[in-house]
């Protein structure tokens, strides 16, 4: 295949037909393609066109992610919370999914609150408290069994 005018940044595919390398355009692939002007935009915040390519930049307080998006520099992914997090007044705080859990000393993992030993759990007469991860339940004392009568359970 011959391309009379040449293919500056591309490959000759047939009589005077060029296939441009990524980042270039035009009949002879001699023009830089402005990727920053493409839709969808390749960068979330700021884009700078370079010869044959482009560079993404983020606004202050944000970090460039591999996919071209910008993430707050204090994101959940960076804090590595066990159950997810929320941003409060510019600070990332890890969350625990139930009231029976609290953040551990590292501020990222949740530890169980023993409601039975702290007195937070109240079990009715003839029942004892059994702690579980994140909660508790009441069980009949030894020697008693659970009965259902008049629409309620009792031991």
TrEMBL record:
<keyword id="KW-0677">Repeat</keyword>
<dbReference type="Pfam" id="PF07645">
    <property type="entry name" value="EGF_CA"/>
</dbReference>
<dbReference type="InterPro" id="IPR000152">
    <property type="entry name" value="EGF-type_Asp/Asn_hydroxyl_site"/>
</dbReference>
<protein>
    <submittedName>
        <fullName>EGFL6 protein</fullName>
    </submittedName>
</protein>
<comment type="similarity">
    <text>Belongs to the nephronectin family.</text>
</comment>
<keyword id="KW-0964">Secreted</keyword>
<dbReference type="InterPro" id="IPR018097">
    <property type="entry name" value="EGF_Ca-bd_CS"/>
</dbReference>
<keyword id="KW-0130">Cell adhesion</keyword>
<feature type="domain" description="EGF-like">
    <location>
        <begin position="32"/>
        <end position="71"/>
    </location>
</feature>
<dbReference type="GO" id="GO:0007155">
    <property type="term" value="P:cell adhesion"/>
</dbReference>
<keyword id="KW-1015">Disulfide bond</keyword>
<feature type="domain" description="EGF-like">
    <location>
        <begin position="112"/>
        <end position="150"/>
    </location>
</feature>
<keyword id="KW-0217">Developmental protein</keyword>
<dbReference type="InterPro" id="IPR052235">
    <property type="entry name" value="Nephronectin_domain"/>
</dbReference>
<dbReference type="GO" id="GO:0005509">
    <property type="term" value="F:calcium ion binding"/>
</dbReference>
<dbReference type="GO" id="GO:0030154">
    <property type="term" value="P:cell differentiation"/>
</dbReference>
<keyword id="KW-0106">Calcium</keyword>
<dbReference type="InterPro" id="IPR000742">
    <property type="entry name" value="EGF"/>
</dbReference>
<dbReference type="InterPro" id="IPR049883">
    <property type="entry name" value="NOTCH1_EGF-like"/>
</dbReference>
<keyword id="KW-0272">Extracellular matrix</keyword>
<keyword id="KW-0732">Signal</keyword>
<keyword id="KW-0221">Differentiation</keyword>
<dbReference type="InterPro" id="IPR001881">
    <property type="entry name" value="EGF-like_Ca-bd_dom"/>
</dbReference>
<keyword id="KW-0245">EGF-like domain</keyword>
């Amino acid at each position: 295949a011959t391309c009379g005018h040449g293919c500056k940044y591309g490959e000759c595919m047939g009589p005077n037909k060029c296939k441009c390398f990524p980042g270039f355009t035009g009949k002879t692939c001699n023009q830089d393609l402005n990727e920053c002007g493409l839709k969808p935009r390749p960068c979330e915040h700021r884009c700078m066109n370079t010869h044959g390519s482009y560079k993404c930049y983020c606004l202050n307080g944000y970090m460039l992610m591999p996919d071209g998006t910008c993430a707050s520099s204090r994101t959940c992914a960076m804090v590595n919370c066990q159950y997810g997090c929320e941003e409060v007044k510019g600070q990332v705080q890890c969350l625990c999914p139930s009231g029976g859990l609290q953040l551990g000393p590292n501020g990222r993992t949740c530890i169980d609150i023993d409601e039975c030993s702290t007195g937070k759990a109240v079990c009715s007469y003839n029942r004892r408290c059994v702690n579980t991860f994140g909660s508790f339940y009441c069980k009949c004392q030894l020697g008693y069994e659970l009965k259902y009568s008049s629409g309620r359970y009792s031991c």
